[in-house]
Amino acid sequence: MKLYEYEAFPNPKRVRMFLAEKGVEIERVQIDVPAGEHRSDTFRARNPEMTVPCLELDDGSHIGGCVAISRYIEEAYAGPKLFGETAAEQGHICAWQRRVEAGLMDAVAHYFHHATPGLGALENYQNADWGQHRGRQAISTLEAMNDRLANKEYLAGDKFSIADITAFAGVGFGLWCDLFSLEAFPNVASWFARVEARPSAAA
Ligand SMILES: N[C@@H](CCC(=O)N[C@@H](CS)C(=O)NCC(=O)O)C(=O)O
Fold first, then answer.
1. What is the 127 CA–ligand 1 centroid distance (Å)?
2. Which protein residue has the closest C-alpha to ligand 1 atom 18?
């Protein structure tokens, strides 16, 4: 099994964190995204979406996308259940995972690709208004997270989950883009520090 990724970018980090939380080590292969390697015929044959991360299984098949890869790792290995154990945990985790993926991680990515120079010459369509709109949506998701984290240690409740991994990568990406700071979101800031202190955050 091997993971195709580009270490500096936020989506691969989600999978590295997930693997670290599960205590699983696998071979990692760097795909030079800024140089356009992810759009080569060779990589497109592995992941038609032409994005990293992409997991290659031992049977030679491929799984693209952070949640799908994490789902596979969750089921294939022991370790903490980051998608939840009980029906209630799984439901809350699924709801927050979806919310922070669409409303934060993807929203920041759209801001980056549309309202900033993004990947430069690799950007073949940009719509600055859309990018700004998505940036505002990311900030309103931060507001919702701040309310939620007023009386919860983690987004889905008492236990760390995949929703926290996605949100951690999304907040880190937004900070890196200068889309927001955490000054106005004290509960998010404390949660971010808690997640950042986990060994997996350095993965
Ligand atoms: N929803 C996908 C997003 C993957 C994604 O957008 N990855 C970025 C790197 S962080 C990428 O490969 N971008 C290439 C591009 O935009 O051309 C996932 O969960 O893996």
1. 18
2. 65
Enumerate domains of the chain plus CATH numbers: 2-76 (3.40.30.10), 87-202 (1.20.1050.10)
The DSSP secondary structure of 43-80, one letter per residue, reads HHHH-TT--S-EEEPTTS-EEESHHHHHHHHHHHS-S-
Ligand 1: nearest atom to the Cα of 39: 17
pTM across the whole model: 0.98
pLDDT per residue as tens, the chain (203 positions): 999 999 999 999 999 999 999 999 999 999 999 999 999 999 999 999 999 999 999 999 999 999 999 999 999 999 999 999 999 999 999 999 999 999 999 999 999 999 999 999 999 999 999 999 999 999 999 999 999 999 999 999 999 999 999 999 999 999 999 999 999 999 999 999 999 999 999 99
Q: Which atom of ligand 1 is nearest to the CA of 52?
A: 12
